[in-house]
Amino acid sequence: MRIALFGDIHANLEALEAVLDDASRQGVTDFVCMGDVVGYNADPVACLEKIRAMGCPTIKGNHDEDASGDHSLDSMNPVAAAALEWTRNQLDDDQRQWLRRLRMVRQVSDFTVVHSTLDQPANWNYVTNRFDAGANFSYQFTQLCFHGHTHVPRIYVKSDKVQEVPAESITLEAGSKYFINVGSVGQPRDGDWRACYAIYDLERQLIVFRRIEYDIATTQQKILAAGLPPMLAERLAEGR
Ligand code: ZN
Known about the structure:
This protein has one domain: Metallo-dependent phosphatases (Purple Acid Phosphatase, chain A, domain 2, 4-Layer Sandwich). It is 32% helix and 22% strand. It has eight helices and eleven strands. It is α/β, with parallel strands linked by helices. The structure holds zinc ion. The site of zinc ion has 7 residues, from loops.
């Protein structure tokens, strides 16, 4: 059985469709979404409806929370806040309620999923090094946990100590724990513009990262046509 772990779609429909097509070519039968379905890019409704129709386990991200609430966004970075205000106006009540009802943490099969980190998931802390990952491991009761939020693919392994290993592929070993950031479908920030997700092969206990090209020009045109901040289109090409 192969499960696709994907998240931080951020309303990028072209990237989402490219990832789902690749996953079916790779023999994936099940999907788990790490959250941040909406925010930043120009297709929040289409992405939300596609994921809702898939019926896959989906975790709440901070942009899902902000887009479905009516609280002030003044403390946010102005570009993200402008995109969230725009997104709030695209969603109907039913779509907002679907986002609001997403859970922060879930166990699926033999692993856990969370958007940010298992220590205080509602605080949306960023895990950017092995010390942050160490705080997560104290709350991780399955061997394997997937997350997102930083938009940078990462593999942290805890055996006698916590280490980071290259985010390419990894075979799980008994006695170690794994906290894996699956990167971002719709707004990667590791310098590679291609959509990122991971496939977990349960029989082989193997996790492989995938990078997928998509029609970025169309995504950029939609961002500009929607009147969203132009830097949101520029950053996609830079993978930042
Ligand atoms: Zn995000």
